Amino acid sequence: MFKKKRVNADGAVGLDLDPSHIAAAxxxxxxxxxxxxxxxxxxRPGILRDGEVVDxxxxxxxxxxxxxxxxxxxxxxxxxxxxxxxxxxLDLPPIDDPKALAAAVKHEAxxxxxxxxxxxxxxFQSLGLVGTATGPRTRVVVAAARRETIDRLVDAAHHAGLExxxxxxxxxxxxxxxxxxESEGAVLYVNASGLTNxxxxxxxxxxxxxxxxxxxxxxxxxxxxRRALTREHARAWMTHVGLLTPLEEIEGDAELIAATxxxxxxxxxQLADTVRNSLNFYxxxxxxxxxxxxxxxxxxxxxxxxxxxxxxxxxxxxxxVLAATTAEDVDLHRLTVAAGLxxxxxx
Length: 347
Fold this sequence. Notes:
- The chain is α/β, with parallel strands linked by helices and about 350 residues long.
- Helices cover about 35% and strands about 35% of the residues.
- The protein contains 9 helices and 18 strands.
- A 6-stranded mixed β-sheet has the order 11-7-2-3-4-17, with helices on both faces. The protein has a 5-stranded mixed β-sheet with strand order 14-13-12-15-16, sandwiched between helices. A 3-stranded antiparallel β-sheet has the order 8-10-9.
- Helix 8 (about 305-315) links the parallel strand 15 and strand 16 (about 320).
- The longest helix is centred in the C-terminal third of the chain and has 30 residues, at about 255-285.
- The protein is globular, with a radius of gyration of 20 Å.
């Protein structure tokens, strides 16, 4: 779990479990990741809360139906993202031997992970040798998830009759799916969906990640409740209204259009605050690198002007990006994380 050295397609389906939807992707890898087949379905509210499985049996039933309807292979790699996952960057003495590095991480991790080690599933990703003020160090990113969180995911997968090829951080998958072959400097990645996934990465790998509740799903819920709309209608109105066209030029009920525009504006502002707070926290770390640009992915991209407004509020050049695809009629806006999960991390 969690480790990444080189990407390799091994036939597993990437399975992203967002509080608002299930997304599955099969991919082809040829220097970059390309979605060859994808499927998405809305997830009944309450099964996942803030990224954690509340009802493994209900989720298992949803997955069983989803895989049967789309005739998907049952070997999957799952993503995990929630606010209780802890990610820390450690600088260790230069270590070349993988076994020695693993032993060093096991020794140091308890001092940096604020949870009992017997209740945690811990893994790490090496970023290689870096120069520091105290000389060369082996830098590693350590990720720890509550064991109960992983157990519930595993239970749901088994209930659905799925074979688990692995479990990975959704943030790592997002980066794999979107990172260009050649990249310079640290980049901010944001996936705005039912959960907001935030990461900072450079060419070596993920430097920082944090998941936050809310995201685009909170805006959809707010609009649907205020205007007595279904979630599907609220989502459609947000895409119709967007942030670019003057209100008087948009067709439809004027009051609903104004309410939709206000909800989107409020949602962008809240997302910007969430991302800014996470980025400021990252910048306080001794090993932090300068972040000069950002990438936005997820369903928020479908809303005209959303990415531009978020970039303005973050005061960063921000590019909306989706995973590449050769498939037709796929909801690519919700497939980014699933695409990244469909590739394995092998030695």
